[in-house]
Design brief:
alpha+beta, elongated, TolA/TonB C-terminal domain, two-stranded antiparallel sheet, three-stranded antiparallel β-sheet
Amino acid sequence: MQERRAHLSGTTAQAARRFLSTRLTLVCLLLFVVPCAPAQTAERSTRKVISTVKPAYPQTLRNLHIEGLVRLKVTVAANGTVGEIKVIGGNPILVESGIKAVKNWKYAPGPTQTEEEIVLNFFDR
């Protein structure tokens, strides 16, 4: 009887460890996703985008189902080229890919330099 009780308590301890491990993993993932929430309310661009480059979605992140948004504020020169890029929010793991892509975007020429907000979606669909 004591042998069975010891086996059951060992199984219970393993289940508890597994449960806590799963919850800890969820909390860690949420810490990366929560900053994305404000990025969903970005306004539309005031300048027309002539050409875009789709950001790379690293296969490793795709396999791990790490998804999210990256919100950027870019300075667009009068000639339509992208200058300075600031990260406003989003999933920090995906920011680098977003910045690399947006550097190569081209906007319609305008009378002056403008600031545009861009939201990039990284979803495995």
